[in-house]
């Protein structure tokens, strides 16, 4: 199943992740997604982004990883830019 992210924040990504389910694909249209506490907790998913889709850690987020993995979930990333370099941290 392919589910398109319907917003530009962590809640929208988590909703798409949960709807896609095990082995599904979460699709990110072009845009900047400001994330904090983002979790890849569904196994064997693919997160596929258009060429200009960027996951960017919020300036208010604590330093650390941009995407946390829970329960040993396996995640494939394709076409996404991940920007964890926030000057506020």
What this model shows, in words?
This protein is mainly β and 89 residues long. Helices cover 12% and strands 39% of the residues. It has one helix and nine strands; from the N terminus they run βαββββββββ. It has one helix at 10-20; strands at 2-4, 25-28, 31-35, 38-40, 45-49, 53-57, 67-69, 75-78, 81-83. It has a four-stranded parallel sheet. It starts with a strand and ends in a 6-residue tail after the last strand.
Architecture blueprint of SSEs:
Elements: E1 2-4, H1 10-20, E2 25-28, E3 31-35, E4 38-40, E5 45-49, E6 53-57, E7 67-69, E8 75-78, E9 81-83
Parallel strand pairs: 1-2, 2-5, 3-6, 4-7, 5-8, 6-9
Strand content: 35-45%
Q: What is the total tally of β strands?
A: 9
Radius of gyration: 12 Å
What count of helical segments does DSSP give? Answer: 1
**Structural class from helices and strands?**
mainly beta
Spatial order of the strands forming the largest sheet: 1-2-5-8
Q: How do the helices and strands follow one another from N- to C-terminus?
A: EHEEEEEEEE
Distance between the termini: 36 Å
Low-confidence stretches: none
How much helix is in the residues? 10-25%
Describe the main β-sheet briefly: 4 strands, parallel
Average of per-residue pLDDT values: 87
Sum up the overall morphology in one term: globular
